[in-house]
Amino acid sequence: MSGYRNPWALVGVLCSLILGGAALGGAAPPFRSISTGSGLDLHVWTDTCNTYVLRDGDAALLIDLGDGSVLDHLADIGVRRVEWVLFTHHHREQ
User: Which domain does 65 fall in, by range?
Assistant: First the structure.
């Protein structure tokens, strides 16, 4: 993750997702922005599951991918390249 300025901020955001991710479920518009307080932008794309987009500049880390439709909309939030995709589990919705 050479594009990320502060790897500890990334660890903090990931821990927040693990501990609080259930509260983000439900019907919503495709992208929702979540304040992280770490200088990184966190967005949630909702399709077959929640896809978390952690953006730093024009680089992003994707957490879970759903049906992949998020890939067509990353430019809407300023993402030009995806550096990592993290799958937290395996189900057919991914």
Answer: 7-86
Q: Which residues of 43-75 are buried (b: 16+ CB within 10 A; e: fewer)?
A: bbbbeebbbbbbbbeebbbbbbbbeeebbeebe
User: What is the arrangement of strands in the sheet containing 59-63, beginning at the earlier edge strand?
Assistant: 31-34, 41-46, 50-56, 59-63, 81-86
- Residues 19-47 have pLDDT tens digits of 454 444 444 457 888 777 777 889 999 98
Asked, for residue 59, whether it belongs to a domain, the answer is yes
Domain assignment present for 92: no
Tokens at residue 80, please?
A: 């030009």
Q: What is the pTM of this model?
A: 0.66
Task: Please indicate, yes or no, if residue 64 is contained in any of the structural domains.
Answer: yes
Q: Is residue 2 part of a domain?
A: no
The tally of domains found in the chain comes to 1
